[in-house]
Amino acid sequence: MNRASPTALVRTLIPSFVAVAAVLLLVVGTLAVAPKPAGATSSDPPVVRVVGGLSGDVGDGGPAITAPLNNPSAVAYDAAGNLYIADRDYDRVRRVTPQGIITTVAGTGLRGYSGDGGPATEAELYQPYDVEAGPDGSIYIADYGNHRVRRVGPDGIITTVAGNGSTVANGDGIPATDMTVSGPIGLALDSAGLLHISDYTLHRVIAVDASGIAHYEVGTGTGSYSGDGGAATAATIRNPRGLDYQADGSLLIADYSNNRIRRVAPDGTISTILGNGSASHSGDGGLATSASVPGPTAVAVASTGEIYVASYTSHRIRVIDPGTGIVNTFTGNGTTGVAANGTAISGAAVRNPMGVALDPAGDLVIAAPVNALVRSTAGGVIRTIAGGPAPATRTFNGDGPGLDTILSVPRGMSVAADGDIVFAEAGSQRIRRVQPDGRVVTLAGNGGTTFNGDGLPGIATGIYSPYDVDHGPNGTIYFTEVSGNRVRRIESDGTVSLLAGDGIAGFSGDGGPALSARLSGPRGIA
Known about the structure:
Largest sheet: 5 strands, antiparallel
Distance between the termini: 11 Å
Number of helices: 1
Structural class: mainly beta
Shape: globular
Number of strands: 39
Radius of gyration: 25 Å
CATH topology of the largest domain: Neuraminidase
CATH superfamily of the largest domain: TolB, C-terminal domain
CATH architecture of the largest domain: 6 Propeller
Helix content: under 10%
């Protein structure tokens, strides 16, 4: 079976379509080319099957205001005025030029971990949560689901700069690519070139120096609130998220689950500058330390010193005056609507703001993931600068006619010599088949990710991120589970058997039973 970009192949094949000996399967950005069905002659035209909704077209090359986004979670600007968007659930990083044209700069739209050393647009990401632009034209990506931080150089080549893919803490003062970064969710680059990373799951902030060595900078690894007035390394934070720097070199941390903004001074002392720990909204017009800020997800410092904070839970952006320490609401009225373009920021609805950044003119830009929009506050009004119609919901809608089927992150496909088409649908945790009549049916997967035993009927079996499939002998189907760390087989009677892997990521077991061996994110199978 061959794979290629559907747009490129269709443009190439249509002019001489009747001469093409193929069956085509078009599913959300992937085209599979298979042999002709048995009995077809060289003069028979090919059969084209379009399976499922949700086109792979995300608007690249066109206006950003008409391009769909899917849970954009962060925004950043580079020195040239380009806007970068962490398009989290499209598993891409997008760039919007000052002229308003959008393109993809990293990610294929397929969720996974691959591509280091090659073009970033051919690499796979897994829920990029944050993006940061470097002074040399590089961009850094918090590749949350892969537990890594990736870098795209000015030449467009992607590499991993931090994280080993594990979720278990493994020490300090080691190469960043050997250190565990469990759920990186916030990034900041300081003036000295240090990369700072919020480790959401392990309750720390990590600093990576120019030589690539990583150190724990803030937090002990315990998720709680303590330590103000002392060393940041001895303090506790809980699920840190967005980061930014003040002019004096102080690091600001959105201490999400503590409902506070913490400040680490250049001497390493930590304090709280906003929030009293309450999960309700209060305190406008008073000291920031006495106010409450529920669910802060991001922080941005203006050139004039104002500190902007995205309060995800209260549907507001707060701003702290640098001279007085007084906090007020900058925009957001606490409701979950979508403000029309041109609405004054003072009364606008800002639903679940997650990312904030200052544009080159000093105006605040907001990533609003639930509304799938990026919005500007220039001129004192809200307007959309990226994000077209809300993306279609990628929710499993059952078996049925292919054209009515919603597909959620389809990955590997296998087409047998008789034309049988099987594919792994990672988003719905299922293995599915396209029948000759065009119906899509489920072979295995109950929609859950929990391993629930061996030998169960296919549709009763839990599968965790199926990645690739292949046809075996006598009607069997083999598939890999990249997050389940297993290789499994659908038997001819429809039950599912375990072939290799004990479900724990690792490398062990050579020379022993395959069922006791450890695999680490198995992908391809043949």
